[in-house]
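Predict structure. Chain length: 426.
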Amino acid sequence: MKRLLLFAALILLSLSCKKAEAEGGSKDSRGPLDVTVGQSLPNWAEGYLDIHAISTGRGECTFYILPDGTSMCVDVGEMVTSTSSPVSVTQRPNASTRAYFTQAKYMKHFLEATGHNALDYMVMTHFHADHYGTPGGAGFIQSSAGNYCMTGMMALYSTLPYKKVFDRAYSESDPDYNFIAESAVSYSEPSAEHWGNFIKYSTRQKGLQVERFRGGVDNQLKLLYKPSSYSNFKIFNWAVNAEYWNGSKMVDSYAATSIPPENACCTIFLLSYGKFDFYAGGDAGTQTKVAIKVAQNINRTIEAMKADHHMSVDCMSKEQMQIFQPKVIVTQSFARRTDQPMLSTVEGLVSDDAAKQYYTRPHSLYFTNIDDVIYTPNQYLYKGTHVNGHVVIRVVPGGDQFYVYQLDDTNSLYKVKSIEGPISCE
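Prediction complete.
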């Protein structure tokens, strides 16, 4: 009888392991670079840097695992789908789940390799629904505990906690975020009250730490576990609240009497690991007065970047891109018609026209989503680009090379659709 029970237990254990692997579990003996098209992406390992652009079709969300296992998420967007909504691409993996839940499931899967069950850092670039959530949307419930709507970053916290959050406006003297109302930012949505209620409740009752993102420093988003092992890694904060670092001080990019738009107030940083540089500027594209100033002060080529403002109108300009010359651009877009990406913006990046050849470095474009209305009639522009799926940049230890993978976003198996690399860093 005991032998029968033992035999049955072994069978059940074997089946459970196979089920975990089929569902994208962490039972994986492969190394981080043992990647095969059609198979799930292998786990992160210490020394590697992972940057994941998570595809939901409902907002931006970028997940980072830093070389020592410190984890960070930038934005947890969740747009409402309706007849008046700008959202048009098909929701991933399907329309029966919430964007924040998909984002949480994805991050939990890859976070397991670090040995931690919570995010170390959360960064909100700015107060727009496609970056932190849409309070008041249809079907969105109100938190009974803190009087805030369960959407985006606020809902994610209950599913995948984060230890510390940075936003552009936090102040101990202004816990209600009147800063947002007082600045009268032209695109601001009437939802900062929900964020303020969430912050007050979570800091007082749950121990969440919060800071205002500060420009001109490299000691906010720092390695937490083995910093001395990776002295060639840092994240430098270049801009916030429409002010940028000019090398010695923060400078207001708008006149003192001018009210900056919300997109101009985005948090902007440059992540560096050895020779590898990654630029993340939220929605502060060329349509603001900040992006070009930041590029001019960084004043060097970079390896990769998150596309400004979903590669929408008046972004990735000649003045900015002739400096950066990134080898890889990752775009998270989801709007209808020709808004994201904007055809004129894409043309400026891929054109063979001699008059537009300011972007001379060989480069690849990756898109988590493109609406068929934009993609189908303009496929000539997207020849050689990678569309529809999660995008992962994996930098090898030391930062001399990196790879780019696009993953299937229709389920939680995270199977690889394409592989590019190794790409040398310069």
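Summary: The chain has one domain: 51-424.
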